[in-house]
User: Fold these one by one.
Assistant:
Number 1:
Amino acid sequence: MENKDKSNMGRDVIFRIKRFDGEKSYWSDFVVPAQKGMTVLEGLYYIKGTYDGSLSFRASCRMGICGSCAMKINDKPRLACETQILQLNSSKIKIEPLDNFRVLKDLITDFEGFFAKHEAVKPYLIRKDDNYAEPVELIQKPEELHAYYDFTLCIKCGACFSVCPAAATRDDYLGPAAMAAAYRFNIDTRDEGRDERMFMVCSDVGVWRCHFAAECSEVCPKNIEPAKAIQKLRFQAAVHMIKKALKRW
Ligand code: SF4
Ligand code: FES
């Protein structure tokens, strides 16, 4: 019987890629013979191996885990290794580096600031009784794990930051991923470091700068909903600031 669904049949697709050589931006077009199941990342490797070895992009795991291949594909940030060419249903695919990041070369952006913001919120368990000579077992109920589990799935791909309107206006804004990480540790029942994290969270580059556009949750490839985390973090921040004010009073 004839297969009437042509979306998965192999065909040539044009990759229109935004390039940057360190001085100027320009566009390059390449024809990729796309087959069923072929990803955008495989298309980029095809171009690099066939037409232009200087094409630069970042990738590692090829399975949606490392977060390094996020880029703008047909105007939306996506993981290139998880985006199948034919499923985009388009004869021309536009590929650009993520917005809100400095471009280093072609599709490679500078993630140093993004990781520094993550580090600034202390994304690890903080214990007052920290004593590695005598480790203690910290027991947690399944529902306590469930409360923060989704936020542990973040792969630091930067897609959320790239669509954030607050990040677009201020470089030092912590952004959705860092604040989702702060919330993840703040609600972990084993953690005692909430007050330490709140210094950054309540600062003028923290939660109050979020406009709740919620674009971050729309594009997150892991469905983490950083916008939800930020709203909950805002409540924690308000409580923290009230407590501090009462102490001073
Ligand atoms: S929250 Fe989602 S979009 Fe943002 S860095 Fe983590 S995985 Fe990527
Ligand atoms: S290459 Fe690791 S997430 Fe795409």
Note: Residues 226-248 form the longest helix (23 residues).
Number 2:
Amino acid sequence: MINIECIQAAQGDCIWVEYGKDQDSLHRILIDGGTSDTYKRLKKRIKKLKPNERHFDLLVITHIDADHIAGILKLFEKDGLGITFSDIWFNGYKHLGKSRIKGVVQGELLSDYLEQPHLNWNKAFKGKAVSVDKRKKFKSIKLPGGMKLTLFSPTQKALSDLKPHWFKEAKKAGLLVDNKLPYKKDLDTCPSRSKRLSRRMLPDIDALAKTSFEPDSSLTNGSSIAFLAEYAGKKMLFTGDAYATILLDSIQRYLPECEPLYLDLFKIPHHGSDGNISKKLLERIRCSTYLVSTNGAYHKHPDKIAIARIIKYGGHKPDLYFNYLSKYNEIWSNTALQEKYQYNAHYPTDEQTSIKISFKKMQQ
Ligand SMILES: [Zn+2]
């Protein structure tokens, strides 16, 4: 079985993955910790585990933006939960490759923490950068319990491009000890549910999907760790805020015969921003289940163009899973729209603080 819980993380990501033969033999991966406030929900989720079960086979901190790392910083800071990790993937300053800037970085919170001898930092990469080497063949990483991971992003170039901007970006994310900034407050973006949309107000998906693609240029997003996860015949693509271009390039090199990449789940990069999901990328993938993580705060994600592209180019009757119902995604709940364009939209209930996708029927 596989359970994917996309925990509500305001505008960020916090994804809890469990896999195993049965409920008693589950393995765990945690991908990102969301915003600072997300820690409350993450802590609650961890506390649901018995103390002897509080182990993760892998923690992935995809990149240094605050909506992905702030909850993890708090988790490390407040660690009284007795959590252990077999491996932690994170690209710190020392992993960003050669550049003219010399000197030792001090006081960068996450790296200082990960330097502790009892922690395994990028163990699967022998302590080096978690990055795709385009000159070499893809090498899969096997986790305990049989999960297979194949890295699709970042490239070494994306990491070295970030290097000269690291201090500025780390400061923005509240990662530097000396410049610890207050985190942005989590904004509530509750929808106005009573409003009924008339047919005339419904978005024109065909027109939106045709909008020309303007790729994301954020250097931190480009440094995102993204990977294909395979377990018992199921394939999932977790992407952080990765570039569509890097993902597509990796898929093309992974499957050079032009065959599509079949997926059971695609976590849409960068919270459904239109700069991170292209027609070309969607056409190379065959997937029926798409996951979008955001409440729309600050950036009004997901963009209508991105969702329109998924509906139009994302295969037959795709299922869209949102981890919030917000004023920026409620439009997709419209039944006339779902009927007309043949897709299904799923949202958590008022009581839920995550959206869960489970795969029960598995290959042996
Ligand atoms: Zn993000």
Note: Residues 12, 65, 67-68, 241, 270-271 surround zinc ion (CB under 6 Å).
